[in-house]
What does this fold into?
Amino acid sequence: MDNFVIQGTAPRRNRLHMRPPPKPLEMFKEKDVNHHDEEDEVQSALTEVDEGKEKIHISDDGRRKRAAQVANVAELMEEYTVLLARVLQHLFHDAPFPRRVRFLILRRLPFVSSSYAFTTPTTPLLPAPA
It folds into this structure.
């Protein structure tokens, strides 16, 4: 009950989370007697060209960083895959598990193909009730 009083009512919380709608940009422009709309268009075209050049350089740097990150992840995944292959080899060839237990373990792995993941065992897991 105290928790409800501290948090307030749902309509109040909803009102607090609401954001006002964005205002049009024209309301923020200050215009004087000598102001012409054509000047804005020319200036914005020039700044768009300059910003475009900057974006190209930024995107090249971003591509290099992303490529380095992808290479790092690929290297880690390769190491993980090799380690996982060793564990699975040990599990299926060296461990003293019965065939049914090995099948159930393999079936529950998240990365196994659908042919293993959705098959049901032919023998029941638990003995039938007497």
In short: The first helix runs from residue 2 to 7. Helices lie at 2-7, 10-17, 37-94, 99-108, 114-117. The CA atoms of residues 33 and 39 lie 13 Å apart.
